[in-house]
Design goal:
The chain has about 290 residues and is an alpha/beta fold. The protein contains eleven helices and ten strands.
């Protein structure tokens, strides 16, 4: 019986899944990916029995194309993927004694009186308080159930950013919008965080972690750094939340997550996640060095 870790990534064709596969391969790890639908129980169990992974990484689900507005018009499909599928995969892994890491979302909160802009961030134990989009609603419900599986690690990403201008990248999205709001938010720079997710998985950590870089950064701060480092000719315009509400179907979560739990856990493994402003600077410097414009 080999003690070697074997990783199986769900959502094989996806953006985050692709980054995970590349990262694991670069580390010399044994990795497979699959596009089997999470809600198809028999097929999921058969795939687990065929590959025999020690670790499943779930980067599948419906975020919507081109954005979460899609989920408003495809509620049944969203439930099948984000609710039934996500819980089914965790359940099947539990039955087979396999550790599962779920890439979830922190877009389940919104600023309130106890968590104002510039104030304390939301903790992993805080109840979700944002139901402005169907996407966020499904994610919040699922987490409440899934957290009881003892084999499950839940990582809450927010507004993920890669070192390229992939269409799924938060920066690519806001750079293409005609107008953007300007509100501080927690963001996840994948180059900093995906190696951390593998560390947590390999140590078989479980429970919920806010999985963002420490701190919060506003849209204008992000775009100014992008302009300064990557695209000097770039310009953008702002609008208010009220104006934004007129052109989107689903509301958007704006919040800061507290990363104390994540930072302290990663210290145990001598891994540090940079503060969000420094992290964006690093990300854009890497973009520039790679010739991204």
């Amino acid at each position: 019986m080999s003690s070697e870790n074997v990783f199986l990534i769900w959502g094989g064709e996806g953006w985050v899944a692709g980054h995970l596969k590349t990262l694991l391969e670069s580390q010399g790890k044994k990795v497979f990916s699959t596009t089997i639908r999470m809600q198809n129980r028999e097929e999921v169990l058969a795939e687990l029995d065929r590959v025999k992974p020690t670790h499943v990484l779930n980067a599948a689900g419906s975020t919507g194309r081109p954005n979460v507005d899609w989920c408003e018009d495809h509620k049944e499909e969203t439930i099948r993927n984000n609710v039934i599928g996500t819980i089914n995969l965790a359940d099947c892994c539990s039955l087979r004694g396999i550790h599962i890491t779920v890439f979830a979302t922190g877009c389940i909160y919104t600023y309130d009186d106890a968590h104002p802009i510039g104030g304390p961030g939301y903790l992993e134990t805080d109840k979700a308080n944002f139901a402005g989009s169907f996407y966020s609603e499904t994610k919040a419900h699922v987490e409440e159930v899934m957290k009881y599986y003892p084999n499950t690690l839940i990582l809450r990403l927010r507004m993920p950013v890669s070192d390229d201008l992939n269409p799924r990248n938060f920066v690519t999205k806001i750079a293409k919008y005609e107008r953007v709001v300007d509100i501080p938010n927690s963001n996840s720079i994948l180059t900093d965080l995906l190696p951390a997710s593998i560390l947590l998985a390999e140590h078989k950590d479980t429970g919920i972690y806010n999985f963002t870089n420490p701190g919060a950064i506003s849209h204008n701060e992000v775009l100014q750094l992008f302009k300064d480092i990557v695209r000097p000719e770039f310009t953008w315009k702002n609008f208010t939340l009220e104006e934004q509400a007129k052109v989107i179907k689903a509301g958007r979560s704006n919040c800061k997550l507290d990363t104390t739990k994540l930072v302290n856990k990663l210290k145990e493994y001598n891994y540090e996640v940079p503060e969000i402003h420094a992290a964006y600077k690093g990300c854009f410097e890497r973009m520039k060095a790679a010739g991204v414009k």
